[in-house]
Amino acid sequence: MTQMTGTPAVPASTGARTATVGVLALQGDVAEHLRAVESAGATAIPVRHPAELDAVGGLIIPGGESTTIWKLAAIFGMTGPLRERIAGGMPVFGSCAGLIMLAARLVDRASDQETFGVIDMTVRRNAFGRQGESFESDIEIAGIAGGAAGPPFRAVFIRAPWVEEIGPGVQALATEPRTGRIVAVRQGPALATAFHPELTDDNRLHSIFVDMLRDT
């Protein structure tokens, strides 16, 4: 996918503790997330096997196709180790398909589809339409650098889900202005977006995730 332009990258904090972020490298926007993590001042490595998972402090589950990523994770022996690390409090960030995989509930669950259930939310897959209905939207995200006075985040939506309902422990970070649907959430060490922040040169969301690792 073509990288979009946007807000200049946020410089890495000087003197900050080094963080190592893994990107689940089975299918989807792996290279783009690796680049974004590095631009946010952390070390980024692809993760395909349980031994590689042991080397990271947090994990990104990229956009792609959620059922395909889950099937490949099972083939590579990753589902059990992933469940264990996530249940143990490892910071995790899911974008698009990754948001689906972190949800506790799916409205339109595919046959035999499983999720990690780490965020108390109900998600509808492909809610914004199919590939040909992809779009971009300027959204305001709570907690990103610049605050309310900062520039909006140019969000890229591709076959995107949305969040239909959240539990009391979940913070809604952003809504899509046209529909009013929740498209970014956080619950404890879990962060998720319905859009693809890795397809812009705005690394503010990845910087939030890197800070989550450093605060762990």
What does this structure look like?
The chain is of the alpha/beta class. The chain has one domain (20-215): Rossmann fold. The chain has six helices and twelve strands. A seven-stranded mixed sheet has the order 2-1-3-4-12-11-10. Strands 5-6-9 form a three-stranded mixed sheet. The longest helix has 12 residues, at 204-215. The N and C termini lie far apart (32 Å).
Supply the key terms.
216 residues, alpha/beta, three-stranded mixed beta sheet, 6 helices, 12 strands, 27% strand, disordered N terminus
Q: What is the N-to-C succession of helices and strands?
A: EHEHEHHEHEEEEEEEEH
Mean pLDDT, as a whole number?
88
User: What is the spatial order of strands in the main beta sheet?
Assistant: 2-1-3-4-12-11-10
Proportion of residues in extended strands: 25-35%
Just give the CATH class.
Alpha Beta
| Radius of gyration from the alpha-carbon trace, in angstroms | 16 Å
Q: What is the CATH superfamily?
A: Class I glutamine amidotransferase (GATase) domain
Low-confidence stretches: 1-17
Number of helices: 6
Largest sheet: 7 strands, mixed
Q: Which fold name fills CATH's third level, the topology?
A: Rossmann fold
User: How many beta-strand elements?
Assistant: 12
Q: Per the principal axes of the C-alpha atoms, what is the gross shape?
A: globular
Q: What is the terminal separation in angstroms?
A: 32 Å
